Amino acid sequence: MEALLGRPNIAGERIGELTAQGSEADLVMFRSFEPGPGSTRFGLLLNEEAIRFLHKAGAGVWIDEYDDE
């Protein structure tokens, strides 16, 4: 998401044009919890800027999480 937000705002508008014509766009996020001394359970965060971008792009969000403990 950071890579997309770092681009000019035109990327969201262009993706939005494509989704308006019937294309589909999704942000796919994958997270795996693995046991160990350095493991953390911080959540996923989509801030206002990210949500605005996804809305403009007409994109959905698909989140997969796995717990290997």
TrEMBL record:
Protein name: Uncharacterized protein
Organism placement in taxonomy: Bacteria, Bacillati, Actinomycetota, Actinomycetes, Streptosporangiales
